Amino acid sequence: MTSPSGPLPTRSQQVADALTTAGIPGGIRQLAESTRTAAEAANALGCEVGAIANSLVFISDDVPVLVLTSGRHKVDTAGLATRWGRGELRRATAEQVRQATGQAIGGVAPVGHPDPLPTVVDEALTDYPRIWAAAGTPHTVFPTTADELLRLTGGRLLPVGLGNTATDSNGAAVPRR
Fold first, then answer.
1. pLDDT at 156 > cutoff 80
2. Percentage of the chain lying above the pLDDT 90 cut
3. CA 103 and chain centroid, separation
4. Topology of domain 10-175, CATH
5. Residue 4: what pLDDT?
6. Of 20, 28, 100, 157, which sits with the fewest C-beta atoms within 10 Å of its C-beta?
7. What 3-state DSSP class applies to 20?
8. Model pTM?
9. How far apart are the first and last CA of the chain?
10. CA distance 3 to 30
11. Run of H or E residues at 44
12. What is the rounded distance in angstroms from the CA atom of residue 83 to the CA atom of residue 91?
């Protein structure tokens, strides 16, 4: 992992300010390598892909929402919408993401947005003692935990991924642990 020197980009400074205000330690790391995808981030950081918290923006009920999901799986949009009690989750366009977060796809952070977004934190992220989230650009990240993400975003902990739910004897979905 390499770390370029110099001041933080504006978007990353906004994230750093939000982390400081919330009392979240760790700080922003600038990397020479891209962290645009979970695989790139895991490679640059030397961690498991599941320890990468992807920040994905969806539109539900005409409102942008944020899903912080483990990089180890894709989001089960239908299942998550049901568990979250929301309407259909549709992937936001690049323009919708930038409008909702002020950040570009590949660098969307959990915070530092113009306004807070309704947020879900993937239950799978609790499997890792330290996770990494984007910090406003594809070259900045910060270390955190699932508990800190919940506190930071006011989010709700739910199973998010495909294959993250099992069924009970009556066929009803139950979260896996």
1. yes
2. 79
3. 13
4. YbaK protein (3.90.960)
5. 57
6. 20
7. helix
8. 0.87
9. 32
10. 5
11. helix 38-45
12. 17
* Structural tokens at position 43: 């490679």
Residue 133 neighbours by CB distance under 10 Å: 25
Q: Can you tell me the distance from the alpha carbon of 118 to that of 161, in angstroms, rounded to the nearest whole number?
A: 18
Identity of the residue numbered 112: G
Asked if residue 176 has pLDDT above 70, the reply is no
Give residue 36's pLDDT band: very low, low, confident or very high (50, 70, 90): confident
Quote the CA–CA distance of 109 and 13 in Å, as a whole number. Answer: 11
148-174: b (≥16 Cβ within 10 Å) or e = bbbebbebebbbbbeebbeeeeeeeee
Identity of the residue numbered 70:
S
What residues does 106 pair with on adjacent strands? none
146 alpha-carbon distance from chain centroid:
10
> Do the beta carbons of residue 117 and residue 100 sit within 8 Å?
yes
Please answer whether residues 70 and 52 qualify as being in contact, where contact means their C-beta atoms are separated by less than 8 angstroms.
yes
Coil vs helix vs strand at 72: coil
Asked if pLDDT for residue 149 goes beyond 80, the answer is: yes
